[in-house]
Amino acid sequence: MSPEDQAVVDQFRAVLTAVRNPKPWAPGTAQDIAVRVGPFVERAQTRPGDDHGPDLIAVTLVHPDTPHAGAYLYGRQLGYTGRDWLRCPTTSIVGFWQPGYTQLTHAANGLHLPDDIGMAPAYYALYIEARKRDDSLDGFTLLRLGPYTQIRHAQQDGDRLTAALNGRETSLVSGYRITMRFGPFCVSDHQLFTDPYNGTDVVALLNAAVADVRG
């Protein structure tokens, strides 16, 4: 066989090996996974702290040649970027990613990812926390805001809260420092969150939470 023919055969063998011998996915493992998107298989990365299952995990689809630098522009053209995190049913997970799956992706077939890939957005949240000023881990959560359907909305409210806290972090609650952090929305704890889309000013929510703590 010619070198070109041999390359095709090697690719085909790699595909067969990956399909016949999937590496079972284990929750909490920092390794890319392969997920089904229609008749194709795509490479995905899980979001740390939000990949415990059992029914849904948060993933972002990435170009199959990731982490190669050249994959970024190509992946952008084919719709792999700009989707943020997605909720992926664990039943769609084929297993851990193997190079043999590359030929089964949209990218390898010169196709754009479809607009509807069967996964809803994985939402975001803001956490306003009170921590002891002695640098210990003791403290409590004042306010949980979420779910945010778009990361830019969470960032906008985060900027408002950061500005409201500027210079007041150590004076709002005696003995504590108030901080704000951005993180994933935990679906299982949804009852603990305040909806940020109900028209209420997030700074007003912060002030109300502080007032409750002060009694």
Descriptors:
215 residues, 5-stranded antiparallel β-sheet, 26% strand
Give the SSE string. Answer: HEEEHEEEEHEH
Shape: elongated
- Looking at how many chains there are and whether they match, the oligomeric state comes to single chain
Distance between the termini: 82 Å
Largest sheet entry: 5 strands, antiparallel
Strand order of the largest sheet: 4-3-2-1-5
Percent range of helical residues: 10-25%
Mean pLDDT: 87
Structural class: alpha+beta
What does this structure look like?
There is one protein chain. The protein is of the alpha+beta class. It has helices at residues 3-20, 71-77, 151-165, 202-214, and strands at residues 33-37, 40-46, 56-62, 86-89, 93-96, 124-132, 139-148, 176-184. The longest helix is centred in the first third of the chain and has 18 residues, at 3-20. The mean pLDDT is 87.
Q: Gist?
A:
With 215 residues, this protein is an alpha+beta fold. It contains four helices and eight strands; from the N terminus they run αβββαββββαβα. The chain has a five-stranded antiparallel beta sheet with strand order 4-3-2-1-5, with no helix packed on it. Strands 7-6-8 form a three-stranded antiparallel beta sheet, with helices on one face.
